[in-house]
Amino acid sequence: MKNLWLMVVMTTLLSVNVFANGKTVPTKVKTGFEQKFQNAQQVKWGKENATEWEADFTWHGKAYSANFNEQGKWLETEYRITQSEIPAAVKTSLNKEFPGFKITIAEISETGRGKMYEFDLQKGQQKKEVAFDANGKLMSK
After folding, report:
1. Given CA atoms 13, 15, 21, 27 in this order, what sign does their dihedral have?
2. Has residue 41 got a pLDDT over 70?
3. What's the CATH number where 94 sits?
């Protein structure tokens, strides 16, 4: 009975890692992911859109998401950060551009073009999504 239970658990775990939304994660995508995020844990796959796969996982004790194209090329990684992890230049620009707004979510988005600091902000009923580069330059609002 113990062996049967162990087989059921292992099969379930493998199914979560190999299938997403009823589709098999391509080998190239899994290989690209494993090369970039060695020792990632609790990996769950999904389709971001028709041409991208997204993995949600834990790495070095933090929750991450990463996108890969069908050929296994890494496209983007996102992870949340604390307010103490926001660089001074970004904090200064954020306070200047959006006075009175409170940060509800702070994330880093990394792509081949570099690192962006993305924020969900709120002031009363007003909500905004904004992004800054590492030097504090406002990139989108």
Report:
1. positive
2. yes
3. 3.10.450.360
